[in-house]
Amino acid sequence: MQETPDTSWHSLTVEQVTTILDVNPEKGLSQSEASDRLRKFGENTISIKKEKSFLVSLLLQFKQPLVLILVIAGSITAALQEWVDTGVIFGVVIANAIIGFIQERKAGKAIQALSQIVKSENVVVRDNEKTRLLSRHIVEGDVVQLRSGDKIPADMRLVHTKDLKIDESILTGESISVQKQTGTFPSDTILAERKNMAYGGTLVTNGYGIGVVVLTGNNTETGKISQTMRKAEQLETSLTRRISHFSKNLLFVILGLSVLTFVFGILVVQRTASELFMEVVALSVSVIPEGLPAAMTITLAIGVG
Known about the structure:
The protein is of the alpha+beta class. Among the domains are: 9-47 and 119-218, Distorted Sandwich (Calcium-transporting ATPase, cytoplasmic transduction domain A); 236-304, no CATH class. The chain has helices at 14-21, 31-41, 54-59, 65-79, 83-116, 169-172, 221-231, 238-269, 273-286, 292-304; strands at residues 121-126, 129-134, 143-147, 155-167, 178-179, 197-198, 203-215. Strands 1, 2, 3, 4, 5, 6 and 7 form a 7-stranded antiparallel β-sheet that branches. Strand 1 (121-126) and strand 2 form a beta hairpin. Helix 4 (65-79) packs antiparallel against helix 5, helix 4 packs across helix 9 and helix 8 (238-269) runs antiparallel to helix 9. The longest helix has 34 residues, at 83-116. The chain is elongated and about 95 Å long.
């Protein structure tokens, strides 16, 4: 059997599904075949990204262009012994870093929690006998019996149902349990309307059913969500992209104005270099919006909290 992650299982008949997966829905897989598939395709688990260390996560909060500008400005004011300004600037920088750090750790915990959703123990038919297996040992083609209270261990095409209802709120947001059936649906049917499918991590709330496992691990719908979250290194929206673009432009504007002011003062006003340097520094620091990074971080934290 080959991997089939892109198959529209909900559009296939039960006979087509069992043929593709090479399984008898009455007898299930043989133990030897199941073992071969487990070795070939791996355990039914959702992989999680190794978390960054606390120090690395904290330091990464300072990579934003506007924050770097503030660090430079704070360093300059400290060198000029402007301690009040220095304290305000670095206070904003540190507060921004702490808030961003906390939000990132929360996101990491959410991904870890998602990987635990599909862990369960289920009744599986193998060699025409029922056996209870941990979800990580379930493979594509396994025939799983479902009863009220069971957690779905992987994505399955249902082959038999009797008053079967499943809570799919973790995937669709719909609070009402879905009445399941075994008929086919068009290939373009949205996930929430695929009533002949049972998805990993969802919960049986009523009735009885039998399903054939079609996708496991990272290939399941829950696994895809987890992988998407893993790839999202940071929350990026139209707003954050514009702020980042603004920060970079602001840096160039500040540098440009500083150079022009310095040159103008030397050539036209005929001030000394030491006097001009102090004034240019003061001008540069004054145009930096110190509160913007913290305001952005707090706003986004409230929005996703």
